[in-house]
Amino acid sequence: MELSMFASYDRMHLMEPDMKPDEAGYVDPVDADRPSDRLIVTTERRLRRMALVAADTGARFEREGVEHEPLAWMLAPRELFLGARPIDACQNRDEFLQATLLHRLSLGLDARPEEVNQLLEVDEIDEKAAMTDEEFWSGAAPPDASRHLLEWKLIFFSCMLEGRLGTGSRRIQAFCGLHAEDEQAARGLLRARYGSELAASASIMEGFDPDAPIVTALLSDAIKRMLSATRHEDACGQERDFHFVVEQQFSE
After folding, report:
1. What is the Cα–Cα distance from 16 to 183, expressed in whole angstroms?
2. Strand pairing partners for 159?
3. Which portions of the chain are predicted below pLDDT 50?
4. What pairs with residue 174 in β-bridges?
5. Of 74, 86, 189, 192, whose CB is crowded by the most CB atoms within 10 A?
6. What DSSP letter does each residue of the chain carry, written as one string?
7. What pLDDT score was predicted for residue 44?
């Protein structure tokens, strides 16, 4: 196999349209090592963080049909990391967690750090304000949140769907956690993403049931806890525009 086929792969194809070549810091991996190459001292743990983020990036871009190359995302400066490149920043634990949340929750290709950090802090809700499982499922309000309930305009819905994607041979299973005024509005959001047929057949419920079949199949225990806490944040009037999507596609 000739390496020229790799070397001819235009480096500009690895970059987003508004990136200049010198901004990407791209070093051709096919070229031989050089004494002038930048030396990076790291650890096994930090390399694994970077590898996991790279894997998440590639999987998400494939799943969502993102037009850019995953490597372009890894090499481009991001606001989420205060202008640093993911390939460098995500070796740090905090940035690794930020990137993991960004991709696994499909929050866009970039975000303000404070927005992602708010989601990371979900598990740190003050114990005095948190509800027990029994209080949550019975619909009881947290101790200090009663004054916020009149401000509650959006409802958290769990949406579960499965079926054929368009007219092709691919099928999809998906869980969507989203905020909407009512069930009709929630179904409209699904229609915009998946089309009328899948949206019409979707199962939509208010709140979150960790034991629903699709939830059990698609979501980890950590994500289930996060969604339960996010629903609690909603009741406190703090988080009202949170959308969460997990999809699984396969060919028949």
Report:
1. 38
2. 176, 204
3. 1-24, 123-152, 233-239
4. 161, 247
5. 86
6. --THHHHTS-GGGGS-TT--HHHHT---TTSPP-TTSPP----HHHHHHHHHHHHHHHHHHHHHT-SS-HHHHHHS--GGGTT--HHHHTTSHHHHHHHHHHHHTT--S---HHHHHHHHTGGG--TTTPPPHHHHHHTPPPTT-GGGGGG---EEEEEEEEEE-TTSSEEEEEEEEEEESSHHHHHHHHHHHH-HHHHHH-EEEES--TTSHHHHHH--HHHHHHHHHHHHHHHTTS-----EEEEEEEE-
7. 93
- Rounded distance between C-alpha atoms, residue 45 and residue 61, angstroms: 25
Q: Nearest to residue 250, comparing CAs of 204, 226, 218?
A: 218
Nearest Cα neighbor of 145 from 161, 126, 159, 164 is 126
Q: Which two tokens stand for residue 20?
A: 């200049």
Amino acid letter, residue 150: L
Total count of residues recorded for the chain: 252
Calpha distance 191→18 (Å, rounded): 32
Nearest-angstrom CA–CA distance, 120 and 26: 31
- The 10s digit of each residue's pLDDT in 42-72 is 899 999 999 999 999 998 888 778 888 999 9
Residue 156 phi, psi dihedral angles, 5° rounding? -85, 125
In this structure, are residues 56 and 104 in contact, taking their beta carbons and an 8 Å threshold? yes
Give the pTM.
0.46
